[in-house]
């Protein structure tokens, strides 16, 4: 995979080298090359496939938020779960995340959906599947990405420093079921999608609970407030 010109943070690369050497990753690389050669548009663009890992190096991870697939609409996905580029309409799930954050912390909803500011502080915004074909939801599932991101979660789980795992929805909760809850904080709730958010997502206080846990362990809390002016994104 790294031979395609897709760069990866060195600490993650070392930790995940066994995965890159495995046959399933070679099969995944071949699948993606075949899709591109067939003229299919793949999101996010190649340099952003590992953006979540590059913005949040392994030793810097303080919080993990799990998503499922990248957005499949043009211009949306940029390598961070739940996040979209500035200027793109904020997706409904993220609208609900902002509502919960305002209720929890009093932070007014941002006017954009770019969560880069979180990632740079140690919030690993990880999708289970890192690519998708334009307009074809879930089109790259079961091609190998799930096994790779399982390994990413396992790397974080093995870290000595306690981490907060925020698992919204049954998919994320099942995927990270092996996380050691005796060392890490595991926060669970319904998915923020409009289809399920009113089944208990609201009122979960995920953001304040995450910061309280970090501070209890002598770690810097996350500044969840998103800047209105663009950072280096």
Cα end-to-end separation: 24 Å
The secondary-structure class comes to alpha/beta
Give the radius of gyration: 17 Å
The helix/strand order is HHHEHEHHEEHEHEH
Uncertain stretches of 5 or more adjacent residues: none
Strand order of the largest sheet: 3-2-5-6
The residue fraction in helices comes out at: 25-40%
- Average pLDDT reading: 94
User: How many helices does DSSP assign?
Assistant: 9
Strand content: 5-15%
Record field, number of beta strands: 6
Task: Describe the largest sheet.
Answer: 4 strands, parallel
- Overall geometry comes to globular
Subcellular location: Cytoplasm
Organism: Acetobacter conturbans
Catalytic activity: Hydrolyzes single-stranded DNA or mismatched double-stranded DNA and polynucleotides, releasing free uracil
GO molecular function, one term: uracil DNA N-glycosylase activity
List the helices and strands and how they pair.
Layout: H1 10-15, H2 17-21, H3 23-37, E1 42-43, H4 51-55, E2 63-67, H5 92-105, H6 116-120, E3 123-127, E4 132-133, H7 145-157, E5 164-168, H8 170-175, E6 185-189, H9 206-216
Parallel strand pairs: 2-3, 2-5, 5-6
Antiparallel strand pairs: 1-4
Catalytic activity: Hydrolyzes single-stranded DNA or mismatched double-stranded DNA and polynucleotides, releasing free uracil
Enzyme class: hydrolase
Function: Excises uracil residues from the DNA which can arise as a result of misincorporation of dUMP residues by DNA polymerase or due to deamination of cytosine.
Short description:
This protein has 233 residues and is of the alpha/beta class. The protein has helices at residues 10-15, 17-21, 23-37, 51-55, 92-105, 116-120, 145-157, 170-175, 206-216, and strands at 42-43, 63-67, 123-127, 132-133, 164-168, 185-189. It contains nine helices and six strands.
């Amino acid at each position: 995979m790294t031979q395609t010109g897709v760069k990866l943070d060195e600490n993650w690369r070392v930790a995940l080298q066994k995965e890159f050497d495995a046959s399933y990753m070679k099969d995944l690389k071949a699948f993606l090359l075949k899709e591109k050669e067939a003229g299919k548009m793949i999101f996010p663009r190649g340099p952003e496939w590992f953006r979540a890992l590059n913005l949040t190096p392994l030793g810097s991870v303080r919080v993990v938020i799990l998503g499922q697939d990248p957005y499949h609409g043009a211009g949306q996905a940029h390598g961070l779960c739940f996040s979209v580029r500035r200027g793109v309409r904020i997706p409904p799930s993220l609208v609900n995340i902002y509502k919960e954050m305002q209720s929890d912390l009093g932070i007014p909803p941002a006017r954009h959906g770019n969560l880069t500011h979180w990632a740079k502080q140690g919030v690993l915004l990880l999708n289970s599947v890192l690519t998708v074909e334009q307009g074809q939801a879930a089109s790259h599932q079961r091609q190998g990405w799930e096994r790779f991101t399982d390994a990413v979660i396992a790397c974080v789980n093995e870290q000595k420093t306690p981490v907060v795992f925020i698992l919204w929805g049954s998919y994320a909760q099942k995927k990270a079921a092996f996380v050691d809850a005796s060392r890490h904080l595991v926060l669970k709730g319904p998915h923020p999608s409009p289809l399920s958010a009113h089944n208990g997502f609201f009122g979960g206080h995920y953001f304040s609970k995450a910061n309280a846990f970090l501070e209890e362990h002598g770690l810097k809390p996350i500044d969840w407030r998103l800047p209105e002016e663009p950072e280096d994104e």
